[in-house]
């Protein structure tokens, strides 16, 4: 974890990013929107289910899928 800069707001930020991914998927699946792109940094796609990797604390894709 030597390449990750954490602050007291890091957890809140990654939760907001995951929520954005959830809402984008929900919008598509409920036909509120035709398509979506989620511009979030870091995207989180490399994080494992039980540990962060590099700059990625949460993996937003499975979070969004599981939440729906």
Question: How would you characterize the overall build of this protein?
Answer:
By secondary structure, the chain is mainly α. The chain has one domain. The protein is 41% helix and 0% strand. The radius of gyration is 13 Å and the shape is elongated. The N and C termini lie far apart (30 Å). The mean pLDDT is 85. Pfam families: Hist_deacetyl. Its EC number is 3.5.1.98. It comes from Aureobasidium pullulans EXF-150.
Strand content: under 5%
Question: Which structural class best describes the helix and strand composition?
Answer: mainly alpha
Computed CA radius of gyration, to the nearest angstrom:
13 Å
Give the biggest sheet: none
Q: Total number of helical segments?
A: 2
Give the fraction of residues assigned to helices.
40-55%
Beta-strand segment tally: 0
Order of helices and strands: HH
Oligomer state of the chains in this structure? single chain
Mean pLDDT: 85
Distance, first to last CA: 30 Å
Cα shape: elongated
Low-confidence stretches: none
- Summed up, the domain count is 1
């Amino acid at each position: 974890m030597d390449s990750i800069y954490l602050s007291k707001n890091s957890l809140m930020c990654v939760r907001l990013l995951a929520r954005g991914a959830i809402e984008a998927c929900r919008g598509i699946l409920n036909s509120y929107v035709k398509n979506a792109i989620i511009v979030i940094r870091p995207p989180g796609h490399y994080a494992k289910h039980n540990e962060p990797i590099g700059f990625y604390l949460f993996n937003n894709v499975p979070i969004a899928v599981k939440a729906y």
